[in-house]
Design a protein that fits this description.
Blueprint (H helix, E strand, L loop, with lengths): L8 H60 L8 H5 L3 H34 L6 H20 L14 H11 L7 H21 L2
């Protein structure tokens, strides 16, 4: 007994159409899966970038704070000789604070991105408070030196008050109290965003 298959031209045309439809549906399914995977990767990459940028900017802020606190001042000789040493010192601190404020602005922008992505509260409050404290202590530093006092004004320059101000204004080493506060604030940010890097 022999089985003979005979295909007509209509059967061949129908078979080609079915195979073409199956191929098209398969290609669409693969395309949709690929697009979905690409979107997930893109979303994960943007989250990773935000978390990485937050950590990097936080470290830059830590360095900028310590640069502001550096006791090394390079006063221009001509300014000192002209009797403007205090104004020259103010200029140096203003430049240092400007660099710190630029990094602070970057961190604020990144904090908004983090809030948009993760919908979480601000994890940078401790760093912001320390920056604010440094600003006010530098203002006090110059007030204690008489920079803002009017004619005949008395400035309380008690040794205790000056020493307390110096603890904030001047970096001594990694064990000084203000440096420890800075490191703790950085660790708080690290605790959140190092986890985000692994998501």
């Amino acid at each position: 007994m022999s089985i003979c298959l005979s295909l007509t031209s209509a059967d061949i045309g129908l078979t080609k159409d079915v195979v073409a439809i199956i191929g098209t549906v398969g290609a669409l399914a693969i395309g949709v899966l690929g697009l979905s995977t690409w979107r997930r990767q893109l979303h994960g990459t943007s989250k990773f970038e935000v978390a990485k940028n937050i950590l990097t900017t936080t470290y830059k802020i830590e360095d900028a704070i310590q640069a502001v606190r550096s006791p090394m001042l390079h006063l221009r000789k001509e300014e000192v000789e002209a009797g403007r040493a205090l104004e020259e010192e103010q200029r140096i601190y203003a430049e240092r604070l400007q660099r710190l404020n630029e990094k602070r602005a970057e961190l604020r922008t990144l904090a908004l991105e983090a809030r948009a992505i993760w919908g979480e509260q601000d994890h940078f409050e401790a760093i912001q408070k320390l920056i604010g404290k440094l600003h006010s202590e530098i203002w006090l530093h110059f007030w204690l030196k008489g920079a803002y006092a009017g004619p005949g004004a008395q400035v309380d320059r008690s040794p205790e008050r000056v020493a307390k101000n110096d603890e904030i204004v001047y970096y001594v080493n990694d064990e000084d109290d203000f440096t420890k506060q800075i490191k703790n604030a950085v660790r708080d940010v690290e605790a959140v965003y190092k986890k985000r890097l692994r998501e």
